[in-house]
Design a protein that fits this description.
about 230 residues, alpha/beta, Rossmann fold, five-stranded parallel beta sheet, two-stranded antiparallel sheet, 8 helices
Length: about 230
């Protein structure tokens, strides 16, 4: 796929049809799908039950919400968001994410989190990239559901290797001790906001710290998961 063809303003990211969104309604049907998921980690699960991985080793978070799976063709969209200087895609992600989330909240009488906590980047990585994609996504979500974004509650103190470049077996150790909480009061209900969930090691390490500090309900809100 030619990335140069994917940065045209006013055109669908995939088919280049003229649109006012990042993608057209026809192409959206290829990647934003209604499928069964584990209610805890959001892995695909046709039975909508807690998956074997979460039963065997429950994560420190309680629920995950995602917009779509990290697979073709949507994987190109995420790569552009993270690595091709397309932070404006956060607006489109957040718009569709909050549409889906609002339906779930209304149907299940769920309570909104107290704050949105974007997964922090190390200062070196953020300087290199120019922006924190998780913060961009959280900021756009906040505009739709009016929850405050707190980007100072947690910092990344280890410049870890990119998770995507590591084998699955080493990702948990890679992020161990990577984060540090500030001395701010920890809210009782937090949504950690990320772009991609793969093994879940990054968000679970952050959730572990929040849980230890007294946070009672921790959700993960992400654009996509592998």
């Amino acid at each position: 796929m030619d990335v140069k063809k994917l940065i045209l303003p006013g055109a669908c990211f995939f088919c280049l049809k003229k649109v006012n969104h990042a993608w057209c309604a026809d192409c959206e049907q290829d990647f934003i799908l209604e499928i069964g998921r584990c209610p805890v980690c959001a892995r695909k699960n046709p039975y909508n039950d807690i998956c074997g991985a979460c039963l065997k080793q429950p994560p420190y978070f309680h629920r995950a919400e995602i917009l779509f799976n990290y697979q073709h063709p949507a994987s190109h969209l995420i790569k552009a968001f993270k690595f091709k200087n397309r932070p404006e895609l956060a607006r489109c992600f957040a718009e569709r994410f909050t549409e889906n989330l609002t339906i779930k909240l209304n149907n299940n009488n769920r309570i909104l989190p107290d704050i949105l906590l974007p997964v922090p980047l190390h200062k070196n990585r953020q300087r290199q990239r120019g922006y924190n994609q998780s913060l961009e996504f959280a900021a756009q979500i906040s505009k739709h559901i009016r929850i405050k974004v707190n980007s100072t509650l947690c910092s990344r103190i280890k410049n870890t290797d990119p998770q995507s470049a590591l084998p699955m077996s080493t990702r948990k150790n890679n992020v161990k001790g990577a984060f540090c909480l500030s001395d701010e009061t920890i809210p009782k209900h937090i949504a950690i906001v990320d772009d991609v969930i793969t093994t879940g090691s990054t968000v679970d390490e952050l959730a572990r710290l929040l849980n230890k500090a007294g946070c009672e309900t921790i959700e993960i809100w992400a654009v996509t998961r592998a």
